[in-house]
Specification:
The complex is a heterodimer of chains A (558) and B (483).
Chain A lengths: L2 E5 H8 L5 H10 L3 E5 L3 E5 L10 H11 L18 E4 L3 H4 L2 E8 L5 H16 L8 E7 L7 E6 L3 E2 L8 E2 H7 L1 H6 L9 E6 L2 E5 L3 E2 L12 E7 L2 H17 L3 E8 L4 E4 L6 E5 H8 L5 H10 L3 E5 L2 E5 L10 H12 L19 H15 L3 E2 L5 E2 L1 H4 L13 E2 L9 E2 L4 H9 L8 E13 L2 E13 L5 H15 L4 E4 L5 E11 L2 E9 L1 H6 L6 E7 L18
Parallel strand pairs in A: 4-7, 4-14, 19-23
Antiparallel strand pairs in A: 1-3, 2-3, 5-13, 5-14, 6-13, 7-10, 8-9, 10-11, 11-12, 14-15, 16-18, 17-18, 20-22, 23-24, 24-28, 25-26, 26-27, 27-28
Helix pairs in contact in A: 1-3, 9-11, 10-11
Chain B lengths: L1 H7 L1 E3 H8 L3 H13 L3 E6 L3 E4 L1 H8 L3 H9 L4 E2 L6 H12 L3 E4 L2 E4 L1 H9 L2 H11 L4 H4 L3 H8 L3 E4 L3 E7 L1 H13 L8 H6 L26 H15 L3 E2 L5 E3 H6 L18 E3 L8 H15 L5 H5 L1 E3 L4 H16 L9 E10 L11 E12 L3 H14 L4 E5 L5 E11 L2 E11 L1 H4 L6 E9 H8 L6 H4 L4 H6 L3
Parallel strand pairs in B: 9-13
Antiparallel strand pairs in B: 1-8, 2-8, 3-7, 4-6, 5-6, 10-12, 13-14, 14-18, 15-16, 16-17, 17-18
The chains are: A alpha+beta (558), B alpha+beta (483).
């Protein structure tokens, strides 16, 4: 979960009332946020990823105020757009980053603290919620040196003076040479154009990379344009609503900006508040506690909702800055949080279901207990491996019928194992300093491909390593196992590159070949660092002994 | 064996075997026994490797802890509670054992033997110093009390056993033999014929020394993780849950899309999830389900939902894909009022899950997870809490609940467990969203939760220090685990 740091003094100033440290921490905890750390200066909070509105100190303070019932002001009003508050969207923007929303803040008098928090907030939202500016990017512009209207489009390469630079650079240079250019510049590749916001004087921002120096904001900024761009009109619109609420809480005036697309004209921010009607008994039905009407209204207010009774339903108005409320289930959760998880009394279910293990599990437990009885320790190994371990060190040929991984971070992982013996031999190899005999078994999954579908099956493998370990020893083990399981094995001459020629056999059950056994080839032993002879076997358990394969992927519900 | 030595007094090991009629192991056991009683002496040869443990090296530089302790107390009477350090404790133990000190009241008092030892040291101490300077000196020290003590204290270890070349009866042995004669034929090992003809009756059995060291037998056993998995399984079954399982290799659909995880969610990033190149894609058979999921995603997440992304083959990142598949089939079966279904239906699964990690001492790419669900009518958050208390309770941990966000549940719950006075997150839970189940407001609901198996192990067993160490499968590690 994401973690954010807040300046304590600023948070307390935003709250506007006195509260002692413990009381504050307790309330934050009850809101469902975890206080990770709290020191003199800062408070670190782990918060839920779907609540970007809590990433700003102003937004967090607002939520705390509601939760502690210190605020009942639910109205966030914005002024209408003036004639010049207009962004014209060009036709090329649609190819790369189709949507823009914006707002204008005026009557500003920002403290350094507020400025820092604002910049920090927009960075974080773009990075986390905005998926590294892919989904959402934001820009802040001082309007002092700007001449509207504004233009938003994808343009050919041209020049502007980027933030904190003193000479013009071409878009293409910024993308190649600036740090942020390299990090974000590739977004929207596939087109040779660059997305930018301009006024009549030129470029204000190369989106989503870098703003111009001309529109740089500072604590002395009095009027500011905030643009939010992305691939979804709804999301960009909601983010602007969220920002507007913050500016209003900071005591500034916010007015709309008109956005003129080729085919239609819209305004932002809309401060739209969705409404949901929830039957009163639904809280009992979903949370399991009886909550009276008055109580529901208070609990709703604690979470920032306006609520009222409409017949037997409660009507909720979702705050404009909330992006996470999709439908009434989310409202019910908020009521449960406000009620307090600690206060919800557990209610037992009545059920007559017997419960039990899968047949596969029980069979495998049976086999494992026999293997332990035969003196073998159980080993558990990774399903992930590489060709060298799975084939090369085993002197086995790659047959292509195996599952490969496209994007491993670790260089030692390239595929899913097709058998278990390599894992066990590796275990024996790293045990060479331990007392002999070493006897290990593993009963777990191996993987292959049938047609285009993955095959997931269970195998049993065992290795015994000691001086004079020989073919008859492993044959005795396998026959002992078969006898205990009540199956008849047929062991006949076979060849396998991992075993010594002439000391290898195939194992059959019901005329079906299920695996190999024998003395491990000395070259294989050496490749795993094994210094004494070893014998072993591997058998596929599918199709006999009640062990089924995992259902082929995608097959559920057929 | 003593009798065999009586005539010749000194013989080679081979001669002794022949003369005594004993097997090799029996004879070796007897020799060590007799030698310990100083009834015989042996001469040995052969190769061995002497190792001095880290602790041994430390003591060689200073002195054995009992001597350090004697120096520290300087003949004074010292209150016991002043001796708190690890080395003090070890020193105290040995000093007591060797009679260097006595405890009177809560005071430690040095004895006469202690004074002597403080002045002139002990044989073990000087032997350790000698060996630390020159490992070859072991040839002379082998078999001495001092060497035996050091080996017993694990300060030195000898690998590769010496071969006994020659055995000679001592004067004491001759006397003992004479005494033995007086007690007449005592029985050595009991055998088949003695039992059959009761020839043991009226005779005595030769007593053995129970303190003679032996090499302990290894007990083979199940793997630590498997034991924990089985504990979890039996906890679930005890609560009336039935076990289910499902594919490891899945289309992203069942791991993410069906569970309402948006297609641009960070968990779906190549940084976190293993995507497969063969097979690259897997089918999602139910077209109408695909259509419904597309609608839900596009409505809630405001972007185009790609069927192609949903078909990408991946390794499951959680076992919620297994419970998810069962939610799908069970909800369908319940809606069709199929016979034999008696909700609430309680299911669980335990299986491997995968994260694309750089492997190191802290990170594994595959580990175990368990998921559980209850499917029924009008199940509540209060029901979920009850189930979670029972499930976690039967695994032996104490928990509390906190609000949390996971895309596929609402309300969402984080389960925290208390450990060393701190609350740690142990797993997630919640009521499955209707966008997943596809049912209307007032019908079937699904309680769900998931948690890492290794985390349970870490909380329950303080001897395990990291997740990675649990997957050690070297023979030595496997043998040392407590069951």
């Amino acid at each position: 979960m994401p973690v954010a740091k807040y300046n304590k003094t600023y948070l307390l100033r935003c709250l506007g009332f006195k509260v002692d440290e413990k009381e504050l921490a307790r309330n934050i905890d009850n809101m469902g946020l975890n206080v990770e750390e709290s020191n003199e200066k800062e408070i670190t909070i782990e918060f839920q990823a779907n609540r970007p509105d809590l990433l700003s100190t102003v937004g967090l303070a607002r939520a705390i105020k509601y939760f502690m019932l210190k605020s009942r002001n639910f109205s966030y009003e914005v002024g209408p757009a003036g004639n010049k508050d207009l962004i014209k969207v060009g036709k090329h923007a649609a190819e790369i980053r189709p949507y823009i929303a914006a707002l204008i803040v005026s009557c500003m008098e920002m403290s350094e603290e507020q400025l820092r928090d604002l910049i920090n907030f927009t960075e974080k939202v773009s990075e986390n919620y905005g998926r590294h500016r892919e989904k959402i990017a934001m820009g802040l512009h001082d309007l002092k040196n700007v001449k509207p209207p504004f233009f938003y489009d994808a343009y050919e390469d041209e020049e502007f003076v980027p933030l904190n630079r003193n000479k013009p650079m071409r878009y293409s240079e910024v993308v190649k040479m600036e740090e942020k250019g390299r990090k974000y510049g590739r977004l929207g590749s596939g087109s040779t154009r660059y997305v930018a916001l301009k006024d009549t004087k030129g470029t204000m921002s190369l989106i989503p990379v870098l703003n111009s120096d001309r529109t740089k904001i500072s604590a002395s900024t009095h009027e500011m344009l905030v643009d939010v761009t992305g691939r979804s009109r709804e999301v960009a619109g909601k983010i602007v609503d969220m920002l507007a609420a913050d500016f209003i809480d900071m005591g500034f005036a916010v007015r709309q900006v008109a956005i003129e697309y080729e085919d239609k004209r819209v305004e932002a921010p809309m401060m739209s508040r969705e409404e949901f009607e929830v039957p009163l008994n639904q809280f009992y039905n979903e949370i399991g506690v009886i909550i009276g009407f008055n109580n529901v209204i208070t609990l709703a207010n604690k979470m920032g909702y306006e609520a009222a009774l409409v017949g037997k339903n409660v009507m909720f108005r979702v705050p404009a800055y909330r992006l996470d409320v999709i439908n009434d289930q989310d409202v019910v959760e908020d009521i449960a949080v406000a009620y307090g998880y600690d206060y919800i009394q557990p209610v037992a279910l009545s059920s007559t279901q017997q419960g039990g293990l899968e047949a596969n599990t029980m069979t495998m437990e049976r086999i494992s207990s026999v293997m332990v009885g035969l003196g073998f320790d159980e080993s558990m190994n990774s399903y992930l491996t590489n060709e060298q371990n799975n084939f090369g060190r085993m002197r086995a040929k790659e047959d292509g019928g195996y599952i490969t991984i496209e994007n491993p971070k670790a260089s030692t992982i390239t595929m899913l194992r097709t058998w278990l013996l390599p894992s066990l031999l590796r275990d024996v190899g790293i045990s060479m300093h331990d007392r002999l005999p070493i006897k290990l078994f593993e009963l777990d999954m191996s993987f292959g491909i049938d047609g285009n579908l993955p095959r997931e099956s269970y195998s049993l493998a065992a290795v015994a390593c000691y001086s004079q370990a020989n073919f008859n020893d492993v044959k005795a083990v396998l026959e002992g196992l078969a006898q205990r399981l009540g199956v008849e094995l047929r062991i006949s001459k076979g060849e396998h590159p991992s075993f010594i020629e002439g000391r290898c056999a195939t194992v059959e059950v019901n005329k079906k070949n299920i695996g190999f056994m024998g003395e491990i080839h000395p070259e294989v032993l050496t490749s795993f660092g094994i210094e004494e002879p070893a014998v072993g076997f591997e058998i596929d358990l599918t199709g006999w002994l009640d062990v089924g394969e995992n259902e082929a992927s995608g097959g559920a519900g057929d | 064996m003593l009798s065999a030595l009586k005539e010749k007094k000194r013989m080679s090991f081979a001669e002794l075997l022949e003369a005594s009629g004993l097997g090799r192991d029996e004879a070796l056991w007897g020799i060590s026994n007799l030698e310990a009683q100083k009834l015989i002496e042996t001469k040995s040869e052969g190769e061995y490797e002497l190792k001095i443990s880290k602790e041994g090296e430390d003591y060689a530089r200073t002195s054995l802890p009992e001597l350090s302790l004697l120096k520290k107390i300087k003949g004074r009477a010292v209150p016991l509670k002043e001796l708190t350090g690890r080395e003090d404790q070890i020193g105290l133990m040995w000093a007591k054992k060797k009679g260097f000190v006595e405890v009177s009241g809560q005071q430690l008092v040095i004895t006469e033997a202690g004074r002597k030892a403080e002045k002139s040291g002990t044989e073990a101490d000087s032997a350790l110093r000698t060996l630390s300077n020159d490992k070859g000196a072991y040839a002379k020290l082998a078999g001495s009390e001092a060497a035996k003590e050091l080996e017993q204290r694990k300060l030195i270890s000898i690998k590769g056993r010496k071969e006994i070349r020659e055995v000679e009866i001592t004067q004491r042995g001759v006397l003992a033999l004479a005494r033995e004669r007086q007690t007449e034929e005592m029985i050595g090992s009991l055998d088949r014929s003695m039992i059959a003809n009761r020839s043991w009756a009226g005779k005595k059995f030769k007593p053995y020394d129970p303190t003679t060291p032996v090499e302990s037998a290894y007990a083979s056993s199940r793997h630590k993780i498997r034991n924990i998995i089985n504990e979890i399984r039996s906890a679930y079954v005890g609560l009336g849950f039935s076990e289910i399982s499902g594919p490891v290799v899945e289309p992203a659909f069942w791991v993410f899309d069906y569970l309402f995880v948006p297609q641009d969610h960070p968990a779906r990033d190549v940084q976190d999830t293993f995507f497969l190149s063969r097979p690259g894609e897997l089918p999602v058979h139910d077209k109408s389900l695909e259509g419904r999921i597309r609608k839900e995603h596009e409505k809630a997440w405001h972007g185009e939902w790609s069927a192609e992304l949903a078909r990408r083959a991946i390794l499951r990142t959680h076992t919620t894909s297994v419970t998810g598949r069962n939610i799908y089939t069970m909800v369908k079966a319940l809606a069709e009022k199929r016979r034999g279904l008696n909700p609430p239906i309680k299911l669980f699964t335990v299986g491997r899950v995968f994260r694309n990690e750089n492997l190191d001492y802290k990170h594994l790419a595959d580990f175990y997870m368990t998921d559980g669900i209850v499917i029924g009518n009008n199940l509540t958050l209060a029901n979920l809490f009850d189930v979670l208390l029972r499930v976690y309770g039967s695994m032996g941990v104490k928990i509390r609940f906190k609000p949390a966000y996971f895309p596929f549940v609402e309300p969402g719950v984080e389960v925290h467990v208390q450990q060393n006075g701190e609350w740690l997150e142990l797993g997630g839970a919640g009521i499955i969203r209707r966008e997943v189940t596809g049912v209307s407001r007032k019908s079937i609901s699904v309680l769900a939760w998931g948690l890492g198996v290794e985390r349970i192990a870490l909380v329950k067993d303080s001897s395990i220090d990291s997740i990675v160490s649990m997957y050690n499968s070297s023979a030595g590690w496997l043998r040392e685990r407590r069951v």
